[in-house]
Amino acid sequence: MTAMNRDVSELVSSARAGVSLFVQDVVTGLRQVSHNALALLGLAAVAVVVFLSGRDDVRHGLESQVLSWLVDRATARTQVAVDPELNNVLLAMAEPEAIQRATAIDPADLTRQQAAVAYWLSRRYSVAPEPVSRLVQEAWDVGRRAGVEPTLIMAIMAIESSFNPFAQSHVGAQGLMQVMTRIHHDKYQIFGGQNAAFDPVTNLRVGVQVLKECIQRAGSLEGGLKYYVGAANLANDGGYAYRVLAEQAFLRQVAAGQKVPVNVSTPAQTMVQAETSAPQMLQPAMGSAHPEAAALQGTGAVAPAVVIPPAAVPTAPSASDTAPIRRAEQVALAH
Predict the structure, then answer these.
(1) Which of 66, 177, 235, 254 is deepest in the core (most CB within 10 A)?
(2) Average pLDDT value over all residues in the chain
């Protein structure tokens, strides 16, 4: 009997030891699996972050979805917590995608030359630096594609519209570059129609194409500007080309790092010299006689068709200095 009890006790002890060892093995295995799973999840999270950092479209989509979800939650909380008659109307009209329509970028995203031009124009024409920065960026890009110096593009916008994208002259020239929409309506078709004239970037692109055609038709920069302003059949352009080239000279100085007062006035016209050989947009920048033009990246440059003093001289500020006055012009009549 005693021997039988001893055998039973040993059997129970063995069973307990086996069960304990099994439980320990299971716990150890689960612990190792959980550690490996956490490591895999971490690696997967890192891979997702790396993937999203290289896909702007996916990132913007996720941001829009998250923002929409947050807006919906805020709207729901407002409707519960506030009297319906006092609800925030703005929340009901929330549109996270509106930022994609804004013509604006951070000036910090520009090169040093571009940022200098953007800030100078912003102060000179009393416009925000963010939308001007977007226009400067586009002028550099379109200028490189079309072979037109970007400072010339910005100077035309300054003289034509003072950077008002909704400007319209008495003859129907519209937008930043004051293009005659009814004449160049075909150029707007690829951008969705004539109303695209009031999109700043589209108006800039169409205006540069019209300018390029005018210069090619006239055979010179100054002659092209005369065509652009609609004075091809007149004895003179009323000083339009001189004003544009004077403004461009200031922008060249700014891009080259020189100090130019924002209230500087256009110097007196001392000489007008037409370029009859080759237009400005076709000249290489490195061979320019103007060192400030060589600082511009990826565009052509040539000496302006007017004589401008090498350094801008500040004048006493006046009402006309703080808000440059622009006469209505008949712009870009050439097909």
Answers:
(1) 177
(2) 77
**Largest distance between two CA atoms of the chain:** 136
190 and 172, same structural domain? Answer: yes
C-beta separation of 134 from 103 below 8 A: yes
48 plus 166 within the same structural domain: no
334 falls within a domain = no
Select from 249, 207, 241 the least CA-distant residue to 224: 241
168 in the same domain as 118: yes
pLDDT in tens, 53-95: 777 777 777 777 887 777 777 666 655 455 555 567 777 788 8
Residue 329 lies in a domain: no
Position 76 scores a pLDDT of: 64
Q: Tell me which residue range forms the domain holding 50.
A: 2-54
Residues 87 and 137 in one domain: no
CB-neighbour burial class of residue 263 (10 A; exposed 0-12, middle 13-18, buried 19+): middle
How many Å apart are CA 116 and CA 261, to the nearest integer?
13
Do 37 and 123 belong together in one domain?
no
Helix (H) or strand (E) holding 178: none
pLDDT surpassing 90 at residue 315? no
**Do 187 and 211 meet the contact criterion of CB atoms below 8 Å apart?**
no
| Percentage of residues in the chain having pLDDT higher than 70 | 70
**DSSP string of 245-293, one letter each residue:** HHHHHHHHHHHTT----TTPPPPP---B----SS-GGGS-GGG-S-HHH
The mean pLDDT value for 178-196 works out to 95
Q: Hey, what are 62's tokens?
A: 């996720």
Lowest mean pLDDT among 34-43, 252-261, 313-322: 313-322
**Count of the separate structural domains present in the chain:** 3
